[in-house]
Design goal:
eight-stranded mixed β-sheet; Rossmann fold; 189 residues
């Protein structure tokens, strides 16, 4: 049986080669496909699990949370991601999304609020569930990714099981948030 596939969308500006999130998924034997987070998003219809790792910001007029993609001038809105998730309409299974926002040491509380606003937008129209994690300091990332991927590799986990186990074992001041209509939906389709 082929290993489960994980699509990773990430800001590629400062990255050359694999990084901690990629390595953690591969260490669990998962098939990793990486795509830069930019204005040219691939079709993601039919993907079961999508991990998005990026900085988050907001526009001023109108106020809207968005991801900062590859390059300081590239913003990725939730609506763009939703269109890439479901290009053929409602016939496709919606993905489970892990929204992993990077740390902003200047305003962690605002980053957390923007994370949740963006996650709710993704969930509202494009995902069967969103687990919003971060912001975590770069010193915690290895431990965060190792725990997350080991939990994802577990058999029979539902979305709420993943959220609860991750939160319980992280014991971090930045709680994860789960957005879903049915917490018993499986992590993998």
């Amino acid at each position: 049986m082929a290993p489960a596939r994980v699509l990773i969308l990430r800001d590629e500006r400062d990255r050359k080669g694999p990084n901690e999130v990629d390595d953690a998924y591969r260490a669990e034997g998962l098939n990793v496909v990486i795509h830069p987070l930019n204005s040219e998003l691939p079709s993601m219809a039919g993907e079961s699990l999508i991990h998005i790792s990026a900085r988050i910001g907001e526009t001023t007029t109108p106020r809207e949370a968005h991801l900062i993609g590859a390059g300081a001038n590239v913003i990725v809105r939730a609506s763009s991601l939703i269109q890439a998730f479901l290009p053929n309409g409602e016939q496709q299974l919606r993905p489970f999304v892990i929204l992993d926002v990077t740390d902003d040491g200047f305003d962690r509380a605002r980053t957390l609020l923007l994370r949740n606003v963006f996650a709710s937008g993704l969930f509202g129209e494009g995902a069967r569930g969103v687990l919003a994690i971060g912001p975590y300091s770069r010193y915690d990332l290895s431990r965060v990714y190792k725990l997350l991927t080991s939990l994802l590799h577990g058999e029979g986990f539902g979305l709420a099981d993943l959220h609860n186990a991750f939160w319980e074992q992280m014991q971090h001041t930045c709680p994860p948030a789960l957005f879903t209509l049915d917490p018993d939906l499986p992590v993998w389709d």
